[in-house]
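Appendix B. Raw example, untouched.
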Amino acid sequence: MGEKKYKGSVRIGTDQDGKPIKKYVTALSQRELENAKAAIREHYVYGEPLPVDMLFFEYAENWYRLKKEPFVSTSVRASYKSCFMKHILPEFGLQNLKAISAGQIQEFLNSFTNTSKSQITLVMGILKAVFSSAYADGLIDRDPTVALIRPKAQKQQERRPLTKAETKRILKTIRTHPEGLLLGVLYYLGLRRGEALGLKWGDFDWKEDQVHIQRDIDFSYSTAREGTLKTEAADRFVPVPLKLRKMLLQKEGEPEEYVFHDPHGNPLSQATFKRMWCRLMADARCATVRDYDPHAEKNWDILKQVKPTLTPHFLRHNYVTLLYEAGVDPLIAMKIVGHTDYKTTANIYTHVRDEMLKKATVNMGEVFGSREKG
């Protein structure tokens, strides 16, 4: 005799004549039968049937809207959208999810070899999240991203303080260039780029010689606009040195006016800031000349003519270095620069200390010689 089979049915609707539509199921035990019937109810009665096939862009769009967009900041959303439009959708968008193989994904990832670590992390993170979710939803039989190998990233540019020669040239540009105030704010306050561009005259307290950092300029949109600070710790008060105070007071405006703004009083755009930075770095001789065609379209654009060798973050790193050299406690330095994690500040302090030790010249003969005499 064959094994006993249990039979059952689940009503999932009615036809045009009002007759019930049923799904029949068989199982080898009563428990298996009830589980099977529950699965049918879940699939046909309480939820929409899952499509057999789905294109990558359709699923990725739903995944982003439901599982990513509501939980990330505006700037992160912009990064995700840019990555989808520039890289992921052109490669996988019109393919069926089931047709995308692990080999194809790995080959795509390999094309990012020697790009930035952050770029690779973003692309790989999106792909793994999308396919993992699709597997959990039952749209694919296996997750093709499980065994992906991360491509080698471009070596990150070392963050370092300014050299003595760079410092001398930077300070001269601060004093003499028409746009030197921006460089002065970054040098003397150690702010992030967006924090510096978000400064308003009302943020300064001249009685206490300090400035309240309370906003950031966000370039995630088509136009620059105010955004939230990077972290809660970024909301802070920073001492204003006397040299910078004198420069600021010469140009002080209304409390609600941005210190740095366009002709209409709006925050500087990203392109405007980049050109300003190029002019400042060229003046300070902290830029290299690009190989460009002088007869090309827009050959007058300084962005095509020079490439800065320093970024605004170099000045922030330099600021932390100066705090170390001045003997400022790392816990206090952490508050001044707006680091969330003490380790971030401590690591810079440790790096600076180690570099100073490497550069220190000690005559070891003199160290031991005095004891060995006589």
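End of appendix B.
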